[in-house]
Amino acid sequence: MSTELQVNKELLDKINPEAKEDILELQTKIQAFRNLELDQDKFRAFRLARGVYGQRQEGVQMIRIKLPFGKVSPLQIVRIADISDRYAAHNLHLTTRQDIQIHFVKLENAPKVWAELEEVGVTLREACGNTVRNITASSEAGIDPEELFDVTPYAHAAFKFFLRNPVCQEMGRKFKISFSSSDKDSAFGFMHDLGFVPRVKIENGKEIRGFKVFLGGGAWCSAFPGSCCL
Q: Cys bridge to 181: 112, 124, 144, 155, which one at CB 3.0-4.6 A?
C-alpha cells in the first residue's frame, strides 16, 4: 500500500473502533481503485456513502462533513477549518442539510481527513449516497418560544439509530428526515421523506411526548431534476 495513503496509527487508536474500521476500509478501497482492482461504479457508490463526492475537476473530491441537526462545537469547527486549510480550498460551504462541505481534496487524503474529524467526534459516514442523509432540525430548536419541547435529543437519537444501520446502506435512493420545533414547520417537514412536528398529550396526569409525522415528501428532487449525487 502506498505510504501516501497511510493514516497515522496513533491517530486511529484515538477514535472509536467502528470509525477506525470505516477509515481503514476507505483506505483499502482507494488503493484497489487506483490499482484498477475495483470497478469505478462500485467505488463511486462506496465512497459516496462515506461522504466523498466527485467534482468535475479531475483528481479532487468534495468532502461532506455530517453534522446532525447542524450541531457543532467550537473545537469541531476549529478542526474543520484547520483541515480545510491543510487539505482543501480553505473555504467552508454550508449546506441546506446543515452540513459543511470542503472542496478540492485529493482522494488519497480522504482517509486522513476523516480520521482527524473523528478525533473530535465528527463523521463523514452516510453524508452522501443512497443512504439516510443528515437529519436536520429547526435552527431555533431548544430556544423556540413556540416549541412544545426541544426536538434536538430526538433528532440525535434518530441519527445514532440510522448511522451504519444495515437497513440503509444500499437503498434505492437517498432518504431525508427533519424535525421541526413547532407547527410553523421551520424544518420543512412537508418537503422531506419523513417530517416530525412535536405533539404532547396528557394521560393520567402525565405528559406524553410524540410527533405528528409527514411521510412521502421529497420536493427537492422533483423540483430540481438532475440534483442527484455524482
A: 144
